[in-house]
Amino acid sequence: MSADKTTTGLTVEKGHVCHAELNAVLNKNSTDVKDCTVYVALFPCNECAKVLIQSRIKEVVYYSDKYHHKVEFVASRRMLDMAGIKHRQYRPKQSQIVIDFTLIDKMNNGIDTSIEEPKVVQDGQVTSEVDAK
Ligand SMILES: [Zn+2]
C-alpha cells in the first residue's frame, strides 16, 4: 500500500502498516519465540518493544539506530532494559554483498565453462574469492 493521504489526514502508512517486529512474531515458524534473537534493520520503536517483551524475546540485534533520540525509541530502549532484553548493533564486516545473476545464468546453462569464480566485493574492491562449490 502506498502512503496516500485521505480526507481525514490519516495516512495509510500510519494506520495500516504492521512493523517488521510484530510481523515476525505473529508469523513465526515455531510455537513461540521465547529466548530467541530477533534481527531487525532499525532499532525497534516503543510499540514493537512491547511486542518483543511480551513474546519473551531474549535479544534484539539491529543495524541502524537512526532515530536514537526520538521519544518512541528512548522509551523502547528503556523498556527493553527494564525487561532485561539485550540489544546490540550489528556491525557487518563487509559493506555490501554482490550477487551477479548473469554469472548464475551462465553456470546453469553450461554455456561458458571459463567463468570467473564469484568474488566478495567490499566498497567496490574485490576482497576475496568465494568457493562456489
Ligand atoms: Zn515498530
TrEMBL record:
InterPro entries xref list: APOBEC/CMP_deaminase_Zn-bd, CMP_dCMP_dom, Cytidine_deaminase-like, dCMP_deaminase-rel
Positions of the CMP/dCMP-type deaminase domain: 1-87
GO cellular component, one term: cytoplasm
Gene3D superfamilies: Cytidine Deaminase, domain 2
UniProt keyword annotations, A-Z: Hydrolase, Metal-binding, Nucleotide biosynthesis, Zinc
Keyword DNA-binding included in the entry's annotation: no
Protein name: dCMP deaminase
Signal peptide range in chain numbering: none
Listed EC numbers: 3.5.4.12
Family: Belongs to the cytidine and deoxycytidylate deaminase family.
SUPFAM superfamilies in UniProt: Cytidine deaminase-like
Keyword Ubl conjugation: no
One Gene Ontology MF term: zinc ion binding
Matching Pfam families: dCMP_cyt_deam_1
